Amino acid sequence: MRIELDVKLGFKDVMIRPKRSTLKSRSEVSLSRKYKFLHGNGEWEGIPVIAANMDTVGTFEMATALAEHDLLTAIHKHYSNDEWRAFLNQAESKIYDRIAISTGTGKEDAKKLNTILSEFPDLRFICIDVANGYSEHFVDFVKQTRDQYPDKIIMAGNVVTGEMVEELLLSGADIVKVGIGPGSVCTTRIKTGVGYPQLSAIIECADAAHGLGGHVISDGGCKAPGDVAKAFGAGADFVMLGGMLAGHSESGGDLIEENGKQYKLFYGMSSETAMNKHVGGVAEYRASEGKTVKIPYKGDVKATVTDILGGIRSTCTYVGAQQLKELTKRTTFIRVEEQHNQWLED
Ligand code: 5GP
């Protein structure tokens, strides 16, 4: 046994210090980024916020709505091949810059991925997603996928430490997904005791990735636009959101009415709800590591997107960053023991 004594921080442990700025208004701030990737071909331009590949978030409807704002959606892996065909056959060509196809590392996952990619070779992004990105089998799957698709932009995760970020990049990933345990419907830290505070994970993983010319996605733990800004400030190239984009009309699932109030169901992808729905129950050898919650219905996602992007633009004006690209180098985090004033909240 060994113990590391330096403190690791989450979003709640810091604030961003304001700095002198010549910017007059939020409207002067550009959130668009242009990236070239370590392995995959071509350049990508857009706002680097991604809807998570959960079936209550990363839906085709969400992708269509977010593409209007130049955001990305990692489409969840539970659509059938026919549903993919129906979606892509009616979508515009610009959707290919705004969606990733998700896969696990099982044989059936790989088969489905290959079928869709052979029928729709314009798909640019693949998201290889497992709960534990530290397994040899996962690294082998990333290598195989890279060999098979030298031109695609591969996202892979999740991990939380620099050495594993490096291994995944060297195995063929372009973008490493960072986050174990911070998710809003994740119970990994409770069930297993495993995890890493998200802000420190981003800082350390971004440093490792950027050293090799790779990129990172901060995945999980954002509860408000300020957290998204902190993730970018810490060095994330992309930020993935689950809970903040759940509960909308585009978020899939049925609208539930209880005592005159409307809700939508939101659940972790390894929750009992998800496992019952997609794989016929929780296997005996594993615990469910996700929970199920009812989120008050928030209507169309457009207003939420405007709120998130407005928040990040405002962060940029507070620190004098005219472009999102400048946010990290203009960020000084201060360690705090309080966040906002909750006195008058109901
Ligand atoms: P959020 O933005 O809601 O805080 O976090 C979203 C992220 O939580 C997802 O992108 C995914 O990485 C993670 N996640 C989703 N479902 C589960 C689950 O059932 N268990 C765990 N451990 N993490 C999950």
Helix content: 25-40%
Sheet with most strands: strand arrangement: 4-5-6-7-8-9-10-11
pLDDT < 50 runs, ≥5 residues: none
C-alpha Rg, in Å? 19 Å
Number of helices: 10
Along the chain, the helix and strand elements come as: EEEEHEHEHEHEHEHHEHEEEHEHE
What binds here, in terms of ligands, is: guanosine-5'-monophosphate
Average pLDDT: 96
Q: What structural class do helix, strand and pairing data support?
A: alpha/beta
Amino- and carboxy-terminal Cα gap: 45 Å
Largest sheet: 8 strands, parallel, barrel
**How would you describe the shape?**
globular
Beta-strand share of residues: 15-25%
What's the count of strands? 15
Short recap of the structure:
32% of the residues lie in helices and 19% in strands. It has 10 helices and 15 strands.
Description:
- The mean pLDDT is 96.
- By secondary structure, the chain is an alpha/beta fold.
- Strands 4-5-6-7-8-9-10-11 form an eight-stranded parallel β-barrel, surrounded by six helices.
- The longest helix has 19 residues, at 301-319.
- Helix content is 32%, strand content 19%.
- Helix 5 packs parallel to helix 7 and helix 8 crosses helix 10.
- The chain binds guanosine-5'-monophosphate.
- Guanosine-5'-monophosphate is lined by residues 52, 54, 131, 158, 179, 183-186, 188, 219-222, 240-243, 268-271, 289-290.
